[in-house]
Amino acid sequence: MKKGILSLAVVAAISFTSCKKDAAQETIDQKVDSTENVVDENMAVVEETVESLEAKIKEATEELSKAVTVEDKQAATKKLNEAKAALATLKGEVTSTAEEVANETQKVANQAKQEVKKVASDAGKKVEEKVTEAKQTVEDIKTSVVKEQNNIKKIGTTVTTDKSKSEPIKNISK
What we know:
Blueprint: H1 2-66, H2 70-173
Keywords: Coiled coil, Signal
């Protein structure tokens, strides 16, 4: 019986823990999905911008190679330099954003880790409480059984004593 109660307590605690882990995992998944969506949206914008800047660089390079006058060469060079500068700026922003996303992802992972630790710790405490309660219940049952056994022994002794007293009385009445 003791093993049965302890087994039930452990099964209940494990079930409780697995439910909590699922909730924590769901929170983590939501945060990761949200971050992935933001990254995907930003990547689409970056790809479009990079393609646009590369086209401007190509166009400026062609204009520079076709330029005959000094003014045309200066205008084409200016256009080329502006496009290259914009591309370099974009690369810097992408790098900065990637670092921010990495930091945010690390932060989310650490929070999730802490949540899982807390849930596991809480579940462990609840399991310990249930085991303690089960042990107390087992002790209470043992105490009750011992009391009942003692009561049965007393009744058996009383019946035996009463039988020896009552038999002579029965014999007299016959």
